[in-house]
Amino acid sequence: MRPGQWHLTEEVDGFLDRARDFLQSRPALHTLPLTVTESVRKRGAGAYGTEAPIFGWLERGGEVRAALFRTPPHRLVLTSLTTEEADALAAHLASLGHSLPGVSGDSDTATSFAEAWQRHMGATPSLHERQRLYRLDALTSPEPLPEGRGRVAGEQDREQLMRWYSEFVDAIGEVPSSDADSWADTRIANGRIRLWQTPDGTPVSMAGATPMVAGQIRVAPVYTPAHLRGRGYAAAATVEVSRAALAAGAAEVVLFADLANPTSNGLYQRIGYRPVTDFALYDFSCGKPEAS
């Protein structure tokens, strides 16, 4: 079967005109493109940096079969592709002179594309992280809950959120999606961060959530400072933000967990999250197009 034709654009509205139905057909699996495109649509092309984002869709027989996006300087993000489709995409992007720092997608897709990019560009892929996507089944509060209570982060928490966001980004080894102050301001304004605080009012953990798109909300990020871990604070904060997502009407609440961290994977399953599928993130060394 022919792999179909890829269409690339910097216009998010044009992309959504063609790919919206495809993305919304599987909102949990497509949580990243759904939430990122919604952010770009609302905040403009500079939502994730100074360089214009790129969107694309694979069309075959008049139907959209796959999609991609990239918000430089971040990795290329792909929906599910066959090995043949991944190879054709890598060849197409290489022919257009694209330079990619890495790729993210379900494990089979990301691995196929990374291998194809090495063939076409000579860039050596290295596995950055394996993740598991979870979907909330039945929310279960941990027993016993740590002392304290949950609350919505407010303006008084701005400095704390900025510091924790920077620490979180450093801990996962990623390029920040925005500067810490605008990240905190946006989430405070929209009430999208829940804190767990001790009885004396000290915040000890945070859990955030994306806006609802296509009936799904993704929990991210979840962060507890290193010296406060192991006390149940992250579980309590995650329950708080998950409960808020359900109350907002989300049909699906999802989150990603690093498979190298058994503690967080166990935590999410204990409070009711169930595995959906595994993802892989690869980084690419510098390469150059294959000789023609």
The amount of beta strand, in percent, is 25-35%
Global outline: globular
Helix-and-strand structural type: alpha+beta
Helix content: 25-40%
How do the strands line up in the largest sheet?
A: 1-2-3-4-5-12-6-11-10-9-8-7
Please write the string of helix (H) and strand (E) elements. Answer: EHHEEEHEHEEHHEEEHEHE
Number of E strands: 12
| Biggest pleated-sheet summary | 12 strands, mixed
Tally of individual helices: 8
Report how far the terminal alpha carbons are from each other: 25 Å
Mean pLDDT: 95
What integer value in Å does the Rg equal? 20 Å
Poorly predicted tracts of residues: none
Supply database-style keywords.
292 residues, alpha+beta, 12 strands, 28% strand, globular
Brief summary:
With 292 residues, the chain is of the alpha+beta class. The chain has helices at 12-24, 31-43, 83-95, 107-121, 158-172, 180-190, 233-247, 262-270, and strands at 5-9, 54-60, 63-70, 76-78, 102-106, 125-136, 149-152, 193-197, 203-209, 216-223, 252-258, 273-284.
